[in-house]
Amino acid sequence: MIDPYRVLGVDLTASDETIRAAYLAAIRESPPERDRERFESVRTAYEAICNHRRRLAHALFDCSLPTIDDLLSAVSSDFVPQPPTERRLLRLLGAK
Amino acid sequence: MSRKHRPALSRPTPAGTPVSPETHARQVLDAGLYREAIELYKNLLKQERRSEWLDGLAASYAGRAKELASKGMLQEALVVWRNRSTLCGKSLAEGPYLDWLLRTGAHDAALRLLTPTGDAAATVDADLETRLAAVALTAPDSATAQLAADSPLRRHRATAQAAIAACCRGDLADLDEQLRGIPFRSPYRDLRFILKALLLVGNDPAQAAGLIARVTVDGPFERLAAVVRAGVLPDRRWLLALLDLDEEGRHLLLEIKGCPENRRSLLLEVAELARAGVPPTPTRVVDLLLRRSRGLPATAARLCRRLLPYAEKRLAEYQNAFGPLGEAESERILALAAQRRGATNHSESHWLRAVRLFSTEEAPLQAALILRYLFDLIVGDQDASDYDDECTTWLERSLELDPDDRATHLKLIRLHRQGQNLKAARASVETALARFANDPAVLLEAVETALAGNAFKKAVTLAKRLLDLDPINSKVRALIGRAHLSHARKQIRLHRPEAAGKELDLADEWLATAHERSVSKLLRGLSAADASATVLLREAVGELGGKLLAAWHVLLESIRVGSQPAGELRRAAPDLSGMPVPREVLTVMHAINALGENESKALRTVLDTLRAPLKRAAAGDFSESERISICETLLSREERVLLQAYADAGLRRWPERPLFVYLAIFAKHGKGAFFAMSERERQALEGALKKALEDGDQRTVLRIRDLMGPTGYFSGEDSDDSDDDDGFGDFVDDLPANPRDVFNLLISMGGHNEVIRMAREVLPDSKFRPLERAAGGNRKKLAEMLIELLVESLANLDLSSLIAPPSGGLPKPRPPAPKQPVQDDRQKGLFDD
């Protein structure tokens, strides 16, 4: 399974317009002549969730196999990047 | 240092060759025997303190120290290195000494290397300062107080520490300010990029990657730089890099990524999965997520839920971990799980329960989507008429729930039309048109449905509506022309020549090809019997070549308009005396292919008249592919007389071609060739089978095998016992008395499909369909279940009435019919029609 929402960087409640905008941005960033593989995955993702009917069908019937990226994305979606703590940073540099 | 006695070492110099002690010491050193070399050089230096011997001793100490360090004996290595410095007058700070100090945590000692008293022989240089930058930064103030006041390590230390503090507060502005205070040549210079990148890892990894790329590998802050390098990698790659970091590095990376403390071990497990290099199995993922479900976000629950069809037994566990599932959602999961196991019948019942639940949950779109999915799952690309009406009602119900799906409207119209249910097709067209009044695809289906029901006027009206929307649609233009032609035929059949003439006038406006216009003229000629009509008829015949092809059209059209074909042929007077040219024969075959099954009777009548010229043409100069194409057309129409003429001619021309052997024998004996063919023909077929196998012509192999009957029945050893003329009658007489044995014999002859086919003929849908579902697509299982049912049903019947029923009931076992041809590349493209 390559989660189309993750590929396009949109959330589950995104509207048709948001998804289309994300799709266009993604293919501008990875046109087929530059990165064919990425382009294909973006297009596949868009086709899977481009409208309400497709999104529902994806939710109902998709049970394709998971990738590590899907798993990582699922368990890290609530991560909020933090600055390092000084103690840990200095310990990494060799402080006792 | 270990003083263990070493075993005797092989001497670098052969015994008996006298060498000087100096040479011997060099040879021992070069051989890597450092302990021995140290002793030898010490002995030499007792004689005289020569500089080259001192260098030799220093090299021996260095070698020995590195040897120890490589074994992890860092303390011992440091002692040896200090001996080297003391005894040989070498600088302590050179070589790996500093690294070993840092690795053993002797930071104070490392800093002392920079003090004037630390090592009198050492040259305090910028490189050493750079290498000690991280040590100086984290060492206590007392340790750095011993550094020279003008040392950059001391002067920039406070600024670097302030930058670290700003970084850890997330204060980008202050960080920039502090970093500006660290000069380009400062030992702390790498911090200018590392700290900035560290703050950007989470929010702007691309910029962070650009910054960290400017930091050299193995710099003084390498451990910190390695964390940043790992952090900027995308997707799973940062996880893989995480595993390469040490414990402190991992903690720092997970911290800046924002990973909560209680999820770190889960992340490391995921990283280990990533390191395995193969995608994780769904059950493994479900297991991992359920085992560590506490505090996981909703996305993890969603992933787990989507993978439950692979682990349906964990459904209860999932609900304990992530909360209850709706009833409809549970049914969805069970349906997918059953589908995955191949239990189609279970899957169907779960899906239908989900439809009911979604419908009551006011989620009609979900219910509609499931019904369409179920139709595709059960029927797929197969002919829907092979299934009961329930499958079609799924689509109808889905449109009630979601009437806006145009594709389903179109699919339903086509299904009804293909199933000859024109009343339902018209109703579906009306429903679709009510919602998509100006949709070209819907209008096209409406046109085709009207044509299928001979509603020509309606078809033309709809087609014109379609043309208003899509003026250059050539398909529609052709359809309108043909609709007028069909209507004209109808009018001629009803003896309304004027109305027919008007229709033909209209048809001429739309018909694009000269050939079609000639057919139109031909119909004008057939619409009346007077002299002017005859003139038109003969003009049309002339335009159509005046020979075989023209005769074909005259005969066919006269049948279509209800005239006497023989009389009309005489009136049209085409020339059928000579031998038709190959092009004409091929065109006629093309026309035969274009005829619908409903016109097979008309075809038979036409061929009754044209058989003689077509048979004469069999000797014509056709290419191999043309001849095969003709034979296939004749075979498909079961026109065995002509097939034999063309196949025999083909066999004479290409005697090595197995297909012509098959066609010739099939043409001679038909499907009963298994019983009727001679020994000589059987041998020819066996030879052809062998050749087809060698050629890889699987299609012909299957056809020949089918024709030759079940393996062993017609084997060479028993051939003398068989009766060629009455084989089938004897076969029936020899049938076993037990019904089960009859069916088993049927399986041996025709395979499971033959039993299923036969059962379909005798069983009502209500009995057949449940068994088909219960078999879950397994043909063998289905055949066995059907046999059980049939044997039970027949238990009280006389078997002889089964074997040869007067009418209806079970048919006689018969030799297997030719299977559906398997595509063979070499015959590809020959049978487009």
Automatic annotation (TrEMBL), chain A:
Residues 3-62 form the J domain. Signal peptide: none annotated. Gene3D superfamilies: DnaJ domain. SMART domains: DnaJ. It holds the Pfam family DnaJ. CDD domains: DnaJ. InterPro entries: DnaJ_domain, J_dom_sf. It comes from the Bacteria. This is DnaJ domain protein.
Automatic annotation (TrEMBL), chain B:
Residues 1-23, 712-731, 802-833 are annotated as: Disordered. Residues 822-833 have a biased composition (Basic and acidic residues). Residues 717-731 have a biased composition (Acidic residues). Transmembrane segments: none annotated. It comes from the Bacteria. Gene3D superfamilies: Tetratricopeptide repeat domain. This is Tetratricopeptide repeat protein. It comes from Candidatus Accumulibacter vicinus.
